[in-house]
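Recap from last week: sequence in, structure out.
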Amino acid sequence: MALILHIETSTPVCSAALSRDGHLLKLIETNDPRSHASRLAPFIDELLKFSKLSISDLDAISVSLGPGSYTGLRIGVSTAKGLAYAATLPIIGISTLQALANRVIMENKAELKDLVTDNFLLCPMIDARRMEVYTAFFSPTLKLVRAVQADIIETNTYLEYLESGPVVFFGNGSDKCREIIKHPNAIFFEGLEPSGRFMIQLAESAWERQEFVNTAYFEPFYLKDFIATIPKNKIIPPQ
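Predicted structure tokens:
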């Protein structure tokens, strides 16, 4: 049992949560795009003040490892590392996609009740460029069935899975797939985003197993290299 701070910054959602012994104490989050750098530290400070705690009172920090936004992940992981070094705390790495799948299981039990079969799969999706998504497949027990990949969505992209049984697609990457994937076994859940709240169960289990990342060397799971671009309206004067 542990007191854990949870940091989720892999998408436009900036989320911080505090849990004790697997139970949520407080959650603060916003879906204001590109606010991670200015909001995350104040969110964490507010969580600790609300609970009358300091960083040194924590047992561990859990942080979303991606895949997702390059900048968002850098901010989340850098913050977690800074706090961990300052208070000599272990860091627990949580898969963004697994935590998103955990949200579906926790919040949609009634909707899933009649769908769960031996071949039932959960497919969380995080939006990437154009018709591309970051995704993986999980069983109803959150066992990884297909590893994380960047997929370009076409009509038959997941046909082999859909032919075997129901597949639930969700996350901000699934919205652009709805009009392309028309198989009768394809089911779409709307409005589901990553949140620190749904990292709690996974982090508590990892704590009990003492599964921590190497604070000095671990990096977020970007999946793709960051490509920096110059804004089109930026004019560079001649030398």
